[in-house]
Write a structure and sequence with these properties.
Layout (H helix, E strand, L loop, with lengths): L2 H11 L5 H20 L2 H8 L4 H28 L2 H18 L6 H29 L5 H27 L4 H19 L14 H5 L8 H27 L5 H15 L3 H8 L5 H17 L3 H28 L6 H30 L2 H24 L3
Helix pairs in contact: 2-6, 2-7, 2-8, 3-4, 4-5, 4-6, 4-10, 4-15, 5-6, 5-8, 6-15, 7-11, 7-12, 7-14, 10-14, 10-15, 10-16, 11-14, 13-14, 13-16, 14-15, 15-16
């Protein structure tokens, strides 16, 4: 092969925006849009069914725990059954479960179907992150994962506000049907992707049975846990908190948050590729702590929107860096399990946060949620300094 052809081949290899990468980003956008529309409306639906703050915390939290328990099995299935099977199966389960919400008449039934939804979410998001990893050049992984995350962030820019707006004009049944329809669009797009074949791990069945995580992904995933605890306080209780304080602009909160996330995609991934997680983690988590303190204070809409921007900028910087860190040291046939480990800790943080904050808000009030969340992120900063002081990762 001539030198020019070799150079051209290398250039093609380094491209991020291939046909299949665009398709996985579009599929990810639609499934996240359907999910984000339910994020602020599920608590309202629980209230509609007669639930209180404690039940809201359990309904939100059980979804993430269900996804958490599912992800290790999804990680193994990605290597044994293939990317296509796992991804489309997860999307199908998500569509059926969300569509069923419109027929539910009790919190117990909703609780049960949220478990099913978590299974679908666990399979589909573990698969989508792994598929994106397959398609991104190794030398541009931080940048590529940032762009992939952008598809979910774009959904976040419209989903919560759209869900809240539709919940005020449409019955919950029609709202959930729309969310299920967006999942169907993701399934259609995913069927067109040319999935990469991966080398299967040569592991005996006894080892697989007890293999629930990827060791190389544990450190960044643990840090993510302490950070995503904050999600439980925002997703489950911020709409109720602002209503109690008679502060308007909750729809704008999610939009400003998403805009800040989008801004981080222009530089955070490249910064990670060039300088590593040390250049990203502490500044980003400091912004999240400040945002939590502002939410605990929350005197008016202006502070609400400033907190939204700081939180979006901080989380948008640190999340793709932690995800790239979690998969970069995994073996090629362990990328799926590394992504499963990463998102398992993501789910665990959200679930623990939602359930714990349900109890905390019931006893101490909503503002105490965000004080506790600030301490959790502060703990992540301490753990990070301990990890990086011992050795360079």
């Amino acid at each position: 092969m001539s030198e020019s052809l070799v150079k051209e081949a290398l250039q093609r290899k380094e491209r991020i925006w291939t046909r299949d990468f665009i398709l996985i980003c579009l599929a990810n956008f639609f499934i996240f849009l359907g999910f984000q529309m339910t994020l602020p409306t599920i608590p309202l639906f629980v209230e509609h069914l007669g639930g209180n703050d404690q039940l809201i915390g359990f309904v939100v939290g059980i979804f993430t725990f269900s996804a958490l328990l599912t992800r290790p099995f999804a990680g193994h299935a990605l290597e044994s059954k293939g990317r296509r099977f796992v991804y489309i199966l997860g999307l199908a389960i998500f569509v059926v479960s969300v569509g069923s919400f419109g027929f539910l008449v009790s919190i117990f039934m909703l609780f049960a179907m949220r478990i099913v939804q978590g299974v679908g979410w666990g399979y589909s998001t573990t698969a989508s992150g792994t598929i994106a990893t397959d398609l991104i050049p190794v030398t541009r992984r931080g940048e590529g994962m940032g762009y992939f995350g952008l598809s979910g962030n774009l959904a976040l820019a419209f989903g919560p506000s759209l869900g809240l707006a539709l919940s005020g004009t449409l019955p919950f049944k029609e709202l959930f049907f729309i969310c299920a329809g967006l999942g169907l669009m993701a399934m259609l797009l995913s069927s067109q992707i040319r999935y990469k074949k991966v080398e299967k791990a040569s592991v005996d069945t006894v080892t697989v049975k007890w293999d629930f995580y990827e060791k190389s992904a544990l450190k960044p995933s643990l840090l993510l846990f302490f950070i995503t605890v904050t999600f439980g306080g925002i997703a489950a209780f911020l709409p109720l908190y602002t209503a109690e304080k008679e502060i308007s602009g909750i729809q704008w909160y999610f939009l400003v948050y998403a805009i800040a996330l989008l801004l981080t995609r222009t530089f955070a991934g490249r910064l990670y590729d060039a300088r590593g997680h040390r250049a990203v983690f502490i500044p980003a988590t400091a912004l999240i702590v400040i945002a939590m303190v502002l939410l605990a204070w929350l005197p008016n809409t202006t502070i609400l929107l400033i907190a939204a921007f700081l939180y979006g900028f901080g989380f948008g910087s640190v999340q793709p860096a932690l995800q790239a860190w979690s998969i970069e040291n995994a073996e090629r046939n362990r990328k799926g399990m590394a992504n499963a480990t990463f998102f398992s800790f993501f789910d665990l943080g959200v679930g623990v946060g939602a359930m714990a904050f349900g109890q905390i808000s019931h006893i101490f009030g909503y503002s105490s949620i965000y004080i506790t969340a600030a301490f959790s992120v502060g703990l992540a900063m301490v753990v990070y300094l301990m990890i990086t002081r011992k050795r360079t990762v």
